[in-house]
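Duplicate of earlier report; Response regulator transcription factor input re-posted below.
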Amino acid sequence: MTYTFPESIRVLLADDHALFSDGLALQLTQADPSVTVVAQVFRGSDVLPAVHEYSPDIVLLDINLPVPNGLECVRQLSATFPSVKTIMLTMYGYRRFINECYEAGAAAYLLKHVRVPAMLDTIRHVMAGERIFPSPPTTDLHADDNFVVRFKLTPTEIKIIKLLRLGLSNPQISQKLFVGVETVKSHRKNIYRKLGIAHLSELINFAQEHGL
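Output:
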């Protein structure tokens, strides 16, 4: 699949932790000059007015945002501004939350420990029309289905695991994800370290066990 990424991306940050929001805004704009953080809001009640005023392409939305919470905000955004893409940003990797956000219309679901390059990668693919979630949404909800948080896997690492399970080589994965081969190798090394494994066969077994 060939992607055409926009020359500029307007981002609205919605997180009740001002220090985190300020730091994220700085890191995003420094890492990618095409990204502009048009506004930051700290309450759910300010999200829709800010979207109306600043016309962002992407809303990075904390699920714990107060009054109303992020889940209710994404429902409102999907109904009122369907062209705006919402990426949920959270510390919670529970399948129940993933499914609820998916069903509410979110475009992606990221855990807060994700690195900025992986976040930017997700933003670009969401702008290209993809929906990026840690694992395939399902109606089979389990409160303990928390392997993404437990192993601290990033969305890019999840995608690489899926592609490896399909039998793709490092160069093929590099082309799929628009990154260098050395970057793929580095991700694989990190995945093996996080999972405590040493062989591809072990990784494939892990992917099968967790439905990847």
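DSSP finds ten helices and five strands in the chain.

Merging into the original ticket.
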